[in-house]
Amino acid sequence: MPGLFDVLEMDGLLLKNRIIVSPMCQYMAGEDAVTTKWHTVHYGSFALGGPALMMQEATAVEARGRITVHDLGLYDDRHVEPLAQMVEFVHSLGVKMGVQLAHAGRKAVVPEAILAPSAIAFSDRYPTPTAMTEADMATVLNAYEAAAKRAVAAGYDVVEVHAAHGYLLHEFLSPLSNVRTDEYGGSLEGRARLVFAVVERVLAAVAGRIPVIVRVSASEYDPNGYTLKEVIEVCQRLVELGVVAIDVSSGGNLPVAPPAYPGYQLPFAEAIKAETSALVFAVGMLSSPQLAEHAVQSGKADAVLIGRGFLKDKHWAHAAAVALGQQPQVSESYRRAYL
Ligand SMILES: Cc1cc2nc3c(=O)[nH]c(=O)nc-3n(C[C@H](O)[C@H](O)[C@H](O)COP(=O)(O)O)c2cc1C
Predict the structure, then answer these.
(1) What is the pLDDT of residue 42?
(2) What is the domain extent for residue 144?
(3) Is residue 3 domain-resident?
(4) Which of 7, 47, 193, 227 qualifies as a FRET site for 233, CA 20 to 30 Å off?
(5) Section 191-218 average pLDDT
(6) How do residues 82-115 score in pLDDT, each as one tens digit?
(7) Alpha carbon distance 199, 194 (integer Å)
(8) 1 is a domain residue
(9) 215 CB under 6 A from ligand 1?
(10) pTM, to two decimals
(11) According to the model, what pLDDT value does residue 339 have?
(12) Which of 24, 247, 286 gets mutated to test ligand 1 (max ligand atoms within 8 A of its CB)?
């Protein structure tokens, strides 16, 4: 089995190792969801730290799909150029960059109307959303397609559709937040209909130029939520549609934190990997280098995403290489630090 520092081919995209920076909202966008210097420094410093791929934070496909007014967006052509400059800079540091396309649904805290599959608030601290009409869904589909086209124009190497953590697409998938009685609710097929439609539109928009991956929440930690078996069925269908990798997270659709401990989401990745032909990425408290190496070497996942580990140590991948007795893949300017 390959290890953490072995290359990974993802539908023609060559990753120099199996370490990916997990998408992490910065809430540092300028007015109208535009990139600021913060993002260039933030992502640029991650890039110096040795991951193969960085996933940009949840980036809204619609203004009303932002979690807050400080989120990045790809819902306007004006967003493209500053993002393209950042991506180009990251590429110059030898790192690939992906963007997570997101719609916050009922977890949005923005001045615009809050939309969701059903008029059920996330918690008593959130407003009750408006149940989406078919016209709203058509708008969201168009927004995903347009954002995916802009992502290609900006030069990203990967597009991830965010269907996890209680945001719009997860809300549709879940019987906890979707009680619709039309064809977008009810059975798994109904609840997954919008997710599949979004993914189809994103795949059509990128037209094979870059891989499309999807982040799912594999468990809702609630007996009335969807089951892992259902998630696996959804993933199998996503792979049939053309999704190259599944990024396996969990939770987020209920205002309670799941029981978390090192590697707690790894069994979900393992279960999805066993039942699909997609690449599977594991995430969640994997920042011990030995655990990250185990996740890959054991074949439970093809790559790991590291979030907070990289926030704490921008050179997490180099430190992991040293901890595992390997030569870090550092830029020439930093080599003397590792002699
Ligand atoms: C500051 C912060 C922001 C986050 N923002 C996002 C996000 O934009 N999209 C997403 O899917 N997950 C987001 N997450 C979750 C992370 O991507 C990751 O799944 C989670 O932190 C678990 O991995 P870790 O234990 O390595 O941090 C965020 C986490 C943190 C700490």
Answers:
(1) 97
(2) 8-327
(3) no
(4) 7
(5) 98
(6) 999 999 999 999 999 999 999 999 999 999 999 9
(7) 9
(8) no
(9) yes
(10) 0.98
(11) 87
(12) 24
Q: Each residue of 52-82: b (16+ CB within 10 Å) or e?
A: bbbbbbbbbbbbbbbbebbbbbbbeeebbeb
Strand partners, 102: 60
Mean pLDDT, range 24-40, rounded to an integer: 95
Both tokens of 165, joined, read: 């953590």
CATH of the domain at 112: 3.20.20.70
Give the model's confidence band at 213: pLDDT under 50 very low, under 70 low, under 90 confident, else very high. Answer: very high
**Nearest-10 Cα torsion for 141, 143, 145, 148:** -140
| Residues 157 and 13: beta-carbon distance below 8 Å | yes
* Total count of domains within the chain: 1
22 alpha carbon – ligand 1 mean position (Å): 6
336 located within any domain: no
Q: How far apart are CA 314 and CA 285, in angstroms?
A: 16
Distance 332 CA to ligand 1 centre (A): 30
Helix count and strand count (H, E) for the chain? 10, 13
